[in-house]
C-alpha cells in the first residue's frame, strides 16, 4: 500500500508539473517571452532557498526537457539574484535591463551560457507563505516586458497559485519523507 501511495503521489506531482508547464508555455507565447522558469521555495537546515523545478520553458518546449531532476537543480539563496529578491520582497518585478539591477546575478547565465537581458518575475504565495517564483526572461521583440505583460501574468497567476499550493504541500512532504528515509537508513 505504501508503494502504491508513493507511486500515486509521484503521478500527481507530474500531473501538476505538467499543468504548470503547459500554463508557462502558454504564458511565454502570450507575453512573447524567450524563456520561463519556476523556482520552488524550501527550507533546508533552517536556510530558505529557491530551487529550479521547471527551466527553459518556451512555447515549443517539451515537458521532459524542462523538468529539472533534484540532482541537476540550481539552488538560489534568498539573498542572491532577482528570484531571491522576488522571494524576499514578495513583490512582482519588471526589470527592463538586468545590467542596471543591483539584484541581478550572472551565475546562472554563466552556468547555462544564456544571456538574460530583461525579466518579469512574480512570487507565488500561499497566504503569507512563499511557495515559488515564476519568471519570464527576454522579451522576444527586443523590447522589455510591458504593463500588459504584467496584467497577463497576474491574470494567470490565480490558476498557478492554486496548482502550486497543492504541489508545494506535496513537495514539502516528499522532502520530509526523503529526510526521514535518510535518517532511518533507507
TrEMBL record:
What is the name listed in the Swiss-Prot or TrEMBL entry for this protein? GAF domain-containing protein
Q: Which domain of life is it from?
A: Eukaryota
The record's section on InterPro entries has: GAF, GAF-like_dom_sf
Q: Where is the GAF domain?
A: 15-174
